[in-house]
Model the fold of this input.
Amino acid sequence: MPKILLFYCFTPLADPEAIRLWQRDLCESLGLGGRILLSPHGINGTVGGELAAVKRYVRKTREYAPFSGIDFKWSEGTGDDFPRLSVRVRPELVSFGAPDELQVDEGGVVGGGERLTPAQLHELVAQKEVTFFDGRNAFEAQIGRFADAVVPDVEATRDFVAELDSGAYDHLKGSPVVTYCTGGIRCEVLSSLMVKRGFSEVYQLDGGIARYGEEFGDSGLWEGSLYVFDKRGSVQFSPDAAVIGECHACGAPSSSMRNCHDLSCRTQLVVCEAHAESAACPEHPH
Done:
């Protein structure tokens, strides 16, 4: 019974390289695949494998005191979701290109947005007119997003700082803004960047879309499928998931995404079954 874990923890790490070696050896000993990033700010990972091995990974990782409170999010795997294991040290856990702006202590990110559980999010929406602010790459929102969300025109996380500094969202600085992303980590950083830039009422969806979907499925404010960075491509929270994506070639409804067929192009495209093998963006036509 293959399982996949999505997790992160912001905590100061004095020796990320030592943690890297330990995590690599632990995953190899358990036969796990996936991707783990470490930095002086903490750990961020997605790993997958057989249930017993994944459970042991959780137990052993939590034995390290700074990681004892990690919130692991579980999902179903297929067994070949990760062809290999990558454990690396980087300056940032999420590549916003602003490592010097991020402050982290034993309690996590300093100065981030107020955390909301999925239930608290519903309470806030019932009380105030909020703006949902997508903290992911724009292509991820093509197949799923919160209703009426603002989706910044960013191709990669590193584009967010310039996007915020452009003034395009200054009209939101005096109103409630709820940031959200896949598992919560990108919004830990994004919400802190927004607070520093004068956004006065910033929230972050704790646990991200993944945790929201666990609790409310497709009966709440989420619409569509959740894009994931492994072989699954996307996941649905229930059989009732709306299909909001449109095939780039013919406009047919679809929740599937593929890389542009041109190997030099990194564009992700929504495709229907008929065009899945011939995905090509306008810059790289057949």
About this structure: The chain has three domains: 2-89, 99-226, 245-285. The helical segments are 16-30, 51-62, 118-127, 160-165, 185-196, 208-216. The longest helix spans residues 16-30. The two ends are 41 Å apart (CA to CA).
